[in-house]
Design brief:
Chain B: Its EC number is 5.6.2.3. Chain B: It is an enzyme of class 5 (isomerase). Chain B: It is found in: Nucleus. The complex is a heterodimer of chains A (394) and B (760). With 394 residues, chain A is of the alpha/beta class. Chain A contains 13 helices and 17 strands. Chain A folds into three domains: 183 residues, von Willebrand factor, type A domain (Rossmann fold), CATH 3.40.50.410; 55 residues, no CATH class; 67 residues, Herpes Virus-1 (2-Layer Sandwich), CATH 3.30.40. In chain A, the strands form five sheets. Chain A has a six-stranded mixed beta sheet, with helices on both faces. In chain A, strand 4, helix 7 and strand 5 form a beta-alpha-beta unit. Chain A is globular, with a radius of gyration of 24 Å. Chain B is an alpha/beta fold and 760 residues long. Chain B has three domains: 198 residues, Rossmann fold; 193 residues, no CATH class; 238 residues, 3-Layer(aba) Sandwich (Rossmann fold). Helices cover 51% and strands 15% of the residues of chain B. In chain B, helix 8 packs across helix 9. The longest helix of chain B has 24 residues. Chain B is globular, with a radius of gyration of 28 Å. Classes of the chains: A alpha/beta (394), B alpha/beta (760). At the A-B interface, helix 3 and helix 8 of A face helix 33 of B.
Chain lengths: 394, 760
Amino acid sequence: MDEEPERAKRWEGGYERTWEVLKEDESGSLKATVEEILFQSKRKRVIESHGQVRLGMMRHLYVVIDCSRSMEDQDLKPNRLTSTLKLMEAFVEEYFDQNPISQVGIIMTKNKRAEKLTDLAGNPKKHITALQKAVDSVCVGEPSLYNSLSLAVQTLKHMPGHTSREILIILSSLTTCDPANIYELIKTLKSLKVRVSVIGLSAEVRVCTVLTRETGGSYHVILDESHFKELLMLHVKPPPSSSASECSLIRMGFPQHTIASLSDQDAKPSFSMSHLDGGGGSGPGLSLGGYFCPQCHAKYTELPVECKVCGLTLVSAPHLARSFHHLFPLDAFTEIPEEEHHGDRFCQACQGELKDKSVFMCPSCHSVFCVECDLFIHDSLHCCPCCIHNQSGP
Amino acid sequence: MKLNIEGLLVYFPYDYIYPEQYSYMLELKRTLDAKGHGVLEMPSGTGKTISLLSLIVAYQRAFPLEVTKLIYCSRTVPEIEKVVEELRKLMEFYSKETGETNNFLALALSSRKNLCIHPEVSSLRFGKEVDGKCHSLTASYIRAQRHSNPNQPVCRFYEEFDAVGRQVPLPAGIYNLDDLKDFGRRKGWCPYYLARYAILHANIVVYSYHYLLDPKIADLVSKELAKKSVVVFDEAHNIDNVCIDSMSVNITRRTLDRCQNNVDTLQNTIQKIKETDAAKLREEYRRLVDGLKEASVARETDIYLSNPVLPDEILQEAVPGTIRTAEHFVGFLRRFLEYLKSRLRVQHVVQESTPQFLKDIFDKVCIDRKPLRFCAERLQSLLRTLEIADIADFSAVTLISNFATLVSTYSQGFTIIIEPFEDRTPTIANPVLHFSCMDPSIAIKPVFQRFQSVVITSGTLSPLDIYPRILDFRPVTMASFTMTLARTCLCPLIVGRGNDQVALSSKFETREDFAVIRNYGNLLLEMSAVVPDGIVAFFTSYVYMENIVASWYEQGILENIQRNKLIFIETQDAAETSMALEKYQEACENGRGAILLSVARGKVSEGIDFVHHFGRAVIMFGVPYVYTQSRILKARLEYLRDQFQIRENDFLTFDAMRHAAQCVGRAIRGKTDYGLMIFADKRYARADKRGKLPRWIQEHITDGSLNLTVDETVQLSKHFLRQMAQPFRQEDQLGLSLLTLEQLQSEEMLKKITQIAHQT
């Protein structure tokens, strides 16, 4: 135990060979560097995601965060836990931005146990405050994959069949302490169609490989902080839903936001339903205006939410529109080797010179882009700027 | 795919080929062309077996008169089975491509224990029991007795085989052990004898080393194999030890006691037979007068434990008069036994050469050299005459008689050492007589002489030039191949210092040093926190491991390690070890993580593969030198120096490094696998040690990975493991370490391939 406090000092933490990352590029002719492989897979991801696949738009995701002893490791700054929680905040924001009608819950595992930090809910604020509070928690003992998975499954298995059930595990430890055979649990997860993905913070662990392969999730191990962020953001995008999942029409309510004027004598301040159980916590509980469920007139201050009274999903139209682009993704640009490209020497988007080995061309408007812009267009814009420009023109 | 290897059309049953496989085949072809012997080193997991098989089979088809047979020797039954499966794949590819049915016959051969289908016999657990029981059902005199007494039990499978099986050749095809058993069951023939008979005309035989190297068995099984065969010894890095073991005899007091009982039994039986059937003994006597060359009518079943290599002329001679009658021979054995007993009564260590021993035995009990030489043969004859069914009990007396024959046959290359007690327990008397072979070339010489090409191959044969020297042969090709990799999936690190700058070493002077032990513990502790799943740690010996683990326990290091991973320990008990291994694998499988503490040269280091997650890191604590105080080793070193001009230190280092390479090589079993290889001893950084590692490991040791501290090691490991955990697909390998036919044929690639083989 006594070596722990000493290691907390940065200058005693051992050598960090930050230059190694650079060195790898020029090592021997035989070895393809890992970075190059990574870049290839980045491109591939863009290409792969374009096809006619059904995406699970309504997601129920449990994020399991490892809070074991190994989270104190300082290879991410300032330590793994703080870094993870920071990224998680960004993830939660982004997640609700892209999947407004989905829900998230957070589980922490430490000391061979698993406990819920937040329940499945569609309110980003609640999660973010919980995450911010969790920064101070102590990291002790080993994590338990089994306990966290079964805790998540207890809730997820009651979710309707047309939604996607997912678990994302952020695992820092290389060991897990399980009360029973985890392979039985994997079978259960598979039969319940729960998709488990893992992001490893230190190295590839066999049981995670099996877990993700069996349940159809993905398994990645981070290289550094920026890679971690990238991997985390991969999970923002809704995964293709399995063909076996049910299709059904869902009733949704689109409540109007009504603001009663103070002068109106009939208007009485009322509690939002979501404040009743104390879950909201923040803000004044009592207010005049709000969203009223079209079915039962229960009042809510925030959307999207599931009506506590009649169970109707309440969303606003912009929410739905935001997840729209997942359904009609932008076509992948064709990759052309630089020598074969005769035409503009400048990227249409950033106007920079095309220097890389290959350029990318939009199949509909034949504009060329550089790699960076290609990724940006596909990841963030979701539409080709040149096509839009042409449309709006004469 | 179809390959053109210097004009030879080779069918290769996979769509992709590793560049080193192509290079390997080139070298192999040159060896066969020259009709000489070869030493080839190629890392495990790069498809050595299939390259060997494809090329030799192609060669056999192209030049049926030049190479008639392939004899493939492997070490264990699972390995034999693996070879047969590869061969099956190859043959299926052949018949698919050429469209004609194959007339190739290939089969595996193993002991009776693995091949017997007799319901009672095959249910026995130990190989010896099976052999003994089989013998009691199939010996010629038993079968002769059946003519007079139909109640005498015999093995119906053997009877059937003897009646019909010899006339009908085994149909062409590929037979592994189970196929042979199935075939035997269908036909009602004994698979063991069927296989032994069929190897004479088979194109490919796959069996264990011992069938060629152990003179006691080789004489039986492999005597009549054609000269124009190609012999392959796979996993041959330990071949010299196999040779030596097959020629050495150890005699303890227990052996002698059991031998005494055997002799008494013999005496009684002779007495009994004399009363009932004196004619039989007279008949034997007459036969011996005529000479040892007897009619070999029913010979194959009778010779159950045959004699060691005898010079041919002995077999022509008659057994000398002194041991010709049964009683005289038993008396002779008694005298010999008494002499050995008296020798074992020594209080101090004795070492003498064979001529000295022979002179002493002549002076003390008047036993001449000549009757001693015939001892083994004479005993066989007697056992046969006495119709002793259960030969298994007579192993002690057989051992003694083998010893007698060996000691009187060879005047060179052997030594006799009598130790009154073990070095570790000098108070407990436990006398042992070691009759130790020092020259591995004695056992393997007949193989090199008889067969046209002998190929010695393994993943770790470095330095290549020492094998031809200690085995005394002249190879035409010696080559070491590297592993072409799309990503550097092995990471050898040499840890020379602890975090406190104490030099890490297992050398004798610092072995007990507290600081070294603590730093070793620290290394394991730190590694257990960063390496996923399984870690295998090797120590130089059981004693060293016990000491270290005990003091780790006292210092509380063990407890800290156990928070990260479970700990399992290899012991000398085989059952315990296999239990530990099983649990170790389970712990790796379900994510708890485990450490296996084991010993270089132990069972784990030789036979067990730790693929993928079962071995993400191997830590070699110390340099695994042999126990240099052993007198047998000293005698051998002296012999090597005098006969082969190999310096003691060179041989010791070579031996230590090949074992170290074996240990760390356990972690990498293929190109998709990855693992850390940690050499925790500063002596590894020296050029003389490092230079003796296989080339495929050596080329990944950079200057930056020498003489690291524990901290640096942890940092490098973390980095390596993260890199390796990134997704890796087959396409990433294509064109670099995995080739299609078109890629193979490109100019550039062919040039690259020529650089893979490293000639010495």
